[in-house]
Amino acid sequence: QDVQVQPESNEFQELLPSLPCERDAMNLPLYLYKGFWYHDHSLEAAMAFRRHFQAQDSDIILVSAPKSGTTWLKSLVFAITHRLQYTVTDQNHPLLTTNPHGVVPFIEVVYRHNKFPDFTSSPPRIFGTHVPYSMLPKSVKTSKCRMIYLCRNPKDIFVSMWHFGNNVVPKRFPSWQPITIEESFERFCKGIAMFGPCWEQALEYWKLSTEKPEEVLFLKYEDLTEDIHYQLKRIAEHLGCPFAPDEENAGVIEDIAKLCSFEHLSNLEVNKTGKDLFPPVENSAFFRKGLVGDWMNTLTPSMVVKLNQVVDQKLHDSGLPL
Ligand code: A3P
Predict the structure, then answer these.
(1) Which ligand 1 atom is the nearest neighbour of the CA of 150?
(2) pTM of the prediction?
(3) pLDDT tens digits along 43-77
(4) Which one of 5, 54, 91, 311 counts the least CB within 10 Å of its CB?
């Protein structure tokens, strides 16, 4: 295996200096590769994912931009797909003792640590990823695996990222220098954020979801908060495990919504004090307010106008309402 890893990593080390590099909305250096921005380690991992991953038809791939509700989506899909194995009210349900990122791994994080991971778990295998559609492995595109894309209003993504950056980045990078929110916002508006621009990423998956709805279910964070019952039914149907009338009558959908709600998950001990997943970052970093429209408390009116303009310009006539 070392023989294969070595040339690949040389290829990456040769590629990296040739890529445009800028500091992002969290003041970390990102590299522009094929229209999207990556940390160096994420790009190397995304390339390994694309090169080596062999999708199976039964796979489930959850895609989102960072800070758009990935943690929530992972918990919902895990609870839906494992509801026969663990009834939702089971005192031993894994989501009571494991953060959602522990039950549904980020595939690029797996590849960051191991170029040849062992994915032999029983189907369906569920993975999360932040990579754009154009970077997905061929086998994902040609298999019948089902994808779910979760998008969120970019103004809320920015505010969530701003807080996350200030809370988490100094712990991971002790020499990190803080920047002003104005500076961070300018960079975000240029699309310079992990796996961003988030509106370009959303657009890729939006187009695919309109062309091949059986492959990609396109969800919005705002719709999940508006009508979780309806959205859970859509998810279950898309994944080929619709709720039976008996389950609906027994309140299983409501139970899943409650199990995975912000209030419930964020108050579990594992999510309040655990830091096993991305040390030294605490699991609590993935839970802040869980609200729609918190941008109103942070962005100035001129920031709102600016970001709306950037997004409208990119998405006009795409039919994607962000
Ligand atoms: P806020 O910072 O706006 O509160 P990600 O999981 O992609 O990192 O996104 C994190 C955002 O999702 C945070 O948003 C977080 O509070 C919110 N979130 C996490 N779990 C949630 C849940 N169960 N329900 C609703 N929102 C949730």
Answers:
(1) 7
(2) 0.95
(3) 999 999 999 999 999 999 999 999 999 999 999 99
(4) 91
